[in-house]
Write a structure and sequence with these properties.
Order of helices and strands: HHEHEEEEE
Strand content: 25-35%
Largest sheet: 6 strands, mixed
Shape: globular
Number of domains: 1
Helix content: 25-40%
Distance between the termini: 31 Å
Radius of gyration: 14 Å
Strand order of the largest sheet: 1-6-5-4-3-2
Amino acid sequence: MILIEKLKPEIEAKQCAEVPSQLTLGELIGMLKDARSTKGDFNLGEGTAADADALAQEFLGPDYRSSSRDDSILISKDGLRQYRSPSAKDSPYATTGVQANYQSRNVPSGEWQNNGHLNILP
């Protein structure tokens, strides 16, 4: 319930700013659940860049940091989750040509074992 209350003002603020194709609160919560629990490579669906950033805030948690190799990559405080902001992708899975990635691993260093893809709407 805390997550719902925390996301509600962001969703309402984005709706007021007339950001197109907003995800519903329920859709964001479902994507967050999938991003945190699904293993391997997986599809999270579609959303706007603003949706991707709002989801990333919740996925990473407080006190996240930028990657030392790329400022557009954000890493959770515990090093177990990573968000790669929307970028152009040449892949048959990138249905819109742009994706954001939500990655996780079991230990705070090494390869990312899980990678969720959110296709970004124009």
